[in-house]
Amino acid sequence: MDLRSCEPWWLLRNGIMWNYPSLVRSLTCDVAIIGGGITGAFISQRLAAAGLAVVVLDKRSIGEGSTTASTALLQYEVDTPLHILEKRVDAETAERVYRLGIDAISSIETLSRRLRVDCGFARRKSLQLASRERDALRLEREVAARRRIGLSVRLLDRERLARERGWGHACALETPEAAEVDPFRLTHGLLQRARRDGARVLDRVEVTRVRPTARSVLLETDRGATVRASHVVFATGYETAAWTPKTRTRVVSTFAMVTDCVDRIEGWDDRSLIWETARPYIYLRRTDDDRVLIGGGDIDSATASTRDRLIPAKSAYLARRLRALFPTLHFDVDRAWAGAFVESEDSLPYIGRSPKHRRLLFALGYGGNGMTFAWIGAEVLAGLIVDGDHPDATRFSFDRARRTAS
Ligand SMILES: Cc1cc2nc3c(=O)[nH]c(=O)nc-3n(C[C@H](O)[C@H](O)[C@H](O)COP(=O)(O)OP(=O)(O)OC[C@H]3O[C@@H](n4cnc5c(N)ncnc54)[C@H](O)[C@@H]3O)c2cc1C
Fold first, then answer.
1. What is the pLDDT of the chain when averaged over all its residues?
2. Which atom of ligand 1 lies at the shortest distance from residue 37's CA?
3. Is any ligand 1 atom within 6 A of the Cβ of residue 200?
4. How far apart, in whole angstroms, are the C-alpha atoms of residue 149 and residue 94?
């Protein structure tokens, strides 16, 4: 699967940060992690620090799957608002998922500081705009639902938005718990720490066959050499293979662009993350070198040729949306790219053991906030591998798809 089109911004900004060897001889380890994106990075750092022998394998160069295409807004809200998610799954799970998102952001901050990973982590407010007049009621319901479970949220009314930002929206929901990060630097930084704790990080090696037995799992690769592991973690992102359990999902494409460096933006001094109630929605943030990074314009196709063809039109659309929010801003589009995106039916990631084999575990962060889901995946899978269980495991299991369906 082509995960993305054109060179995304982070790759150009950071260049080749580290080189990793490939697999040249067969290895044995406690845990083999397939996928060296942000999900594989969180999990490998965690398991290597716990003293396990870890091998990470990626068929691309490290971090060059969806992770480098991400706009990397760290938000705790999943794509379904709390007041709707409470009905779609159950109130307890909905509340827990929202809280896990908040914990994930704090934990990423703490970890990156503790490990001194220079990844541009910065706390931001998140501002969700009412795209249409009638969405105001939806945001009011959402504010009430979040306050009921004790979350800190504010509803900014029309007058306030007009006065402080110069916008004409009916209202916006503001939360203090959000952040931004450079996902490429974070991924490499975590993998470097994992290496120092003994992990072997290997790229340009594709796992072609997975052969589980009662005592271990044998991974065959396109390099001929094999990896035998007690457990295998699939942190393979949006790519599915024969061994991926059945999920209730759909694949879309999303588009992104970055502007050149811009002057002060009136009405955006606080550098909030901005998104909206419309579906599909636009999502935007600033970068640490004063650009604007904006994504959206999703379409129901994951075909690379369709995506490629649409990039100029979609970047023009994103530029129009940016101008509509900040009419005095002068900018040029510096880069535009696109990527595949998988959404689950209930907006939750799939994290847990394969229903067919307990030594195969998955962390598939499907949904708008794959970055925070990556952290949650690392938490849950570390619990399953190290302690044999995790209190939140059943919420994200493949099995829950059957529960939702029945
Ligand atoms: C344009 C865009 C904007 C986004 N914006 C945001 C955002 O603002 N906030 C947010 O939270 N999320 C966002 N996302 C989603 C987020 O980027 C992803 O959820 C996240 O990067 C997934 O990370 P990952 O490590 O799971 O997958 P990936 O980064 O894709 O890593 C998986 C790796 O597995 C490897 N792999 C797969 N199969 C094999 C195999 N058989 N053998 C060896 N290696 C294999 C691949 O090569 C790949 O490198 C965005 C995505 C896109 C495309």
1. 95
2. 25
3. no
4. 10
- Structural domain count, the chain: 2
Q: Would you say residue 112 lies in a domain?
A: no
- Which tokens in the block code for residue 72? 């990397």
Take residue 218 and report the two structure tokens written for it.
């044998």
pLDDT digits (tens, 9 = 90+) for 84-111: 999 999 999 999 999 999 999 999 999 9
Q: Which atom of ligand 1 is nearest to the CA of 62?
A: 49
Q: What is the pLDDT of residue 405?
A: 43
**Statement to judge: residues 265 and 352 lie in one domain:** no
How many CA atoms lie within 13 Å of 350's alpha carbon, on the beta-carbon side?
29
- The reply to whether ligand 1 has any atom less than 6 angstroms from the CB of 212 is no
Q: What is the CATH number of the domain that holds 9?
A: 3.50.50.60
* Residue 239 shares a structural domain with residue 293: no
**Cα gap 135→158, rounded to integer Å:** 13
Contacts of 334 (CB under 8 A, 6+ apart): 9, 257, 258, 259, 260, 291
pLDDT tens track for 67-85? 999 999 999 999 999 999 9
* 236 plus 354 within the same structural domain: yes
Q: Measure the CA–CA gap between 309 and 174, rounded to whole angstroms.
A: 36
Low-confidence ranges of the chain (pLDDT < 70): 401-406
* Cα-to-centroid distance, 276 and ligand 1 (Å): 23
296 lines ligand 1 (CB under 6 A): no
Print the domain residue range for 401. Answer: 4-70+184-247+347-405
Has residue 242 been placed in a domain? yes
